[in-house]
Each structure stands twice: as C-alpha cells, then as structure tokens.
Amino acid sequence: MTFSTFIAVAALMFGLLALEGVHMDRNAEA
What we know:
1 helix
C-alpha cells in the first residue's frame, strides 16, 4: 500500500465518521 493510498483511506474513514457523528447528533436533538 502506498502512502497516498493510506491518506485516501484515512480521509474516507474520517469522512464517514464525521457524517455518522452529525447523523447521531441530529437524532439526539430530535
């Protein structure tokens, strides 16, 4: 695995976690 690929995967995982966190926050408020 190249370094650029690792960065791409890390960014993708971070994005998914961020979306999941926002979704959970919205559910908690509702």
